[in-house]
Specification:
By secondary structure, this protein is of the alpha/beta class. The chain has nine helices and ten strands.
Length: 272
Amino acid sequence: MRGSILQTNSSAISVRNVEKGFVVRHGARHTLSKDRRKNVLHDVNLEVRRGELIGLLGANGVGKTTLLKMMATLTLPDSGSIEIEGIDIKKNPLLARTRIGYCGSEDRSFYFRLTARENLRFFGSLAGLRGRRLQLRIGEALDEVALGEAIDRRFGEFSSGMRQRMTVARALLSDPDIIFFDEPTRAVDPIHADELRRMIRKDLVEDRGKTVVLATNVLEEAWSICDRVAVVSNGTIVCVAPPCELGASHANGSATQPTPIELFKAITTYGM
C-alpha cells in the first residue's frame, strides 16, 4: 500500500454479477436486418474498500467507462447489483448520487460563454450547494486543480487541458466521499498531469480519506498512484491486485523486467 492506511475493511462500493449490453441499431441500408444486442460487460464483480484508490486498467473499448458510469449511477446494469455505501443504485439512485462525484472525459456539458465561476455556480446549485458554501467550494475546487487564477475567464477560452481540469473541479464541488475519474489526465500536459495525480493520491485519498476509482489505459499512471488495480479484459474483470503483485506475476523470474508496453499487453490479455 502506497503510504495509505484504509479506514476500514468494509466496502464503499459493491459490484455483484453485473451484466450490461446495448442495442446496436442498423442504418437505413439495413432496414431488413434486425437490431441486435451487444453484450459489453458480463459477470463483473468488484469490491472497493473505503479510503482506497483503485484503478480500472484496460485497453480502449473493453468496458471501463461503461462500468465507471454504472457505478456513478449514470446508467443502470441490465442484471446484477451495485451498491454505493450500502445504497442500491437501482432502488435509490438519487440518494446514491449524494455520496459521489464523477469526472468524465467530455467537456461538452459546460457552457462555453460562461466563466469558470459561473459554470461551477450552476453545477454546484444542481448538487444542492447554496450561498456562501457554494462560493467557498468554487474557489477551493479551482485552486485544487490550479485554475484559481482563471476563475473569471470564459470556458470557451480554455485550452483542452484546462477544460479537463475543470471536469475535475466540478467532480470535487460537493466534497463527495467517493469520486470516479475517467482518464482525468487525457489531453493534459505532463506537468499538470503529474499535479493531478499527486492531488488525487495525496490530497484526496491520503489526507482526506476519499474513495477513488480511476479508469485509465496508462499502466504507469495506475502503477504510480493506485493501491489496487482491477484489470478489465473482454468485458469482465479478470483480476484485482496491488500493482507490485501484477508486475511480479509477469516477471517470469527473469532478471530483465518487461517494458511497460509488454507488461500492459500481458496483464490486459492474461490477468495474473
